[in-house]
Amino acid sequence: MSSIVDPRSLLYRHLTPEDAQALAAETLRTCDDGELYMQFMASEAFGFDDGRLKTADYSRDAGFGLRGVSGEMTGFAHANEISAKAIRRAGETLQLLDPATGPKAGPPAKSNRHLYTDASPLDLVGFGEKVKLLETIDAAARARDPRVAQVSASLSGSWSVVEIVRPDGFIATDVRPLVRLSVSIVAESNGRRETGSFGMGGRWLYDDLFRPENWNRAIDGALAQALTNLESIDAPAGEMTVIMAPGWPGVILHEAVGHGLEGDFNRKGTSAFAGRIGERVAAPGVTIVDDGSIADRRGSLSVDDEGTPTQETVLIEDGILKGYMHDRLNARLMGVEPTGNGRRENYAHAPMPRMTNTFMRAGEQDPAELLSGVKKGIYTKNFGGGQVDIVSGKFVFSCTEAYMVENGKLGAPIKGATIIGDGPSVLTRVTGIGNDLELDRGIGVCGKGGQSVPAGVGQPTLVVEGLTVGGTA
């Protein structure tokens, strides 16, 4: 596929670009807004476990989603056949909508920006080389330490060609690569087994993942976490000061705060942040942005799934709520501009407001000084799964690597710690912001409304007072 001169040809096998424009105009003529969204997708995944290749999956798919919007009503139909007949049949669904009575929504701004390569990662490296990489990682990890009991490694890649055709003649095209490498290690000592993991990826080709310094970094990271957890003691419980490491721990902001700042929840008044623009919602110094325009990042898009160019959107600035993330529908109904956050899992789903790369900006404090100022608490380096209630912002997160903090120094690693709190109040309890902002390594997947999309998170070192820690001690 990487040798295809025009990736759009994968979409136009049974109709022409002119046909698509005419069909969009015909099927959406009575709607306020909407689009014909066409997509070709190819993906693969390799899983190496217990010293052998366990999975090798490859799939390809193509189809379209036709969405019409009239007022607050949305009609949507999709099919895995891109043809005039199928699109017209989908258009019959939109006849159930009330005809638009107001002015038509204008098209998105035009953009020819490309934040990542058009090339497909799938075909530039052979099947044998991909399997060989996983074999090499498995052997290298086992040779690192006699306590390594089990190694799992996975490699995945996808390539997607998207074209958005609107009834007003607007067309946007985006070609999206995505790759990821993950390593998980189980270490065993004296009958005790603990796990560590490390992953990386982004909107690029496989080249970086095949560099020895990168896959060795993944092995070292997973092994270090597993060996640390072998030494862990039961986590304490109670209300205490929590220091969060930079980078991936920003996932707690994504879940506890980010979803509550998406436009649909605020338009409907179901978010804890609804109607609070201009109010203080966080401690001074807390600035949170969503930025889908960072080159090569996992959560980035040259244009969103409605054709709007992505941008940096300041959500909270110096503790004051400044705005929300919007798709076209919610932006129009709330009287503001779209922010490039209309996203969908694929052609079979309608878009909704979603995060891209959401992170807290750096402060001015030295991370070592922040640590030295904590007499007693815990330091969280990595988080696993979490649960969040969007309406209240209440969350529970499990720590996969954490340490005691005593008299300003890291103490023993702890096991079984969970962080419990709520998004609106956790932001008000931030008492220290490091100067060491990091974005995650490109592993995030965000779920909402039954749809999953790649997303990025990040933060500097943070000190948060009075969080509830659930422990096992």
Describe this structure in words.
By secondary structure, the protein is of the alpha+beta class. It has helices at residues 17-27, 84-93, 127-144, 207-210, 212-230, 251-258, 263-267, 328-334, 367-372, 423-428; strands spanning 33-49, 52-70, 73-79, 148-165, 171-189, 192-202, 233-234, 238-244, 288-291, 312-317, 320-321, 342-343, 352-353, 357-360, 376-388, 394-406, 409-415, 418-422, 430-433, 438-439, 445-448, 451-454, 456-459, 462-470. Helix 1 (17-27) packs parallel to helix 2 (84-93) and helix 3 packs parallel to helix 5 (212-230). The mean pLDDT is 95.
Task: Summarize, please.
The protein has 10 helices and 24 strands. The protein has helices spanning 17-27, 84-93, 127-144, 207-210, 212-230, 251-258, 263-267, 328-334, 367-372, 423-428; strands spanning 33-49, 52-70, 73-79, 148-165, 171-189, 192-202, 233-234, 238-244, 288-291, 312-317, 320-321, 342-343, 352-353, 357-360, 376-388, 394-406, 409-415, 418-422, 430-433, 438-439, 445-448, 451-454, 456-459, 462-470.
